[in-house]
What we know:
By secondary structure, the chain is an all-beta fold. It has one domain (about 20-105): Jelly Rolls. The protein contains no helices and 8 strands. It has strands at about 20-25, 30-35, 50-60, 60-65, 70-75, 80, 85-90, 100-105. The strands form 2 sheets. It has a 5-stranded antiparallel beta sheet with strand order 1-2-8-3-6, with no helix packed on it. It is globular and about 45 Å long.
Amino acid sequence: MTLNNIYADIPTDLSAEVFETLAGSKKVTIERIISKGHCSPAQGWHQQECHEWVIVLQGAAILTFEDDSQVTLNTGDYLNIKPLQKHKVSWTRPEQKTIWLAIHY
């Protein structure tokens, strides 16, 4: 058994958004995402085949959905995104790291 900390080993170079798989199986993947002013490309959407449950552990973000609805996530806020639901990250706080935990199931 190895003890880890979700806030440890954060890269100093955050010029690109960081995606790290923390654990997983054939049916579930748990990942840490670190953003700092990052957002999705203007064109295209994220659209997974499975559910995606996300929580913001630090920072803030805005998710936009295909119907133009938006959800603001602050520290502690979480959301379940249904399979095939088109969404994108429209904004993350540029002056602070946003640390997400995402569970794909």
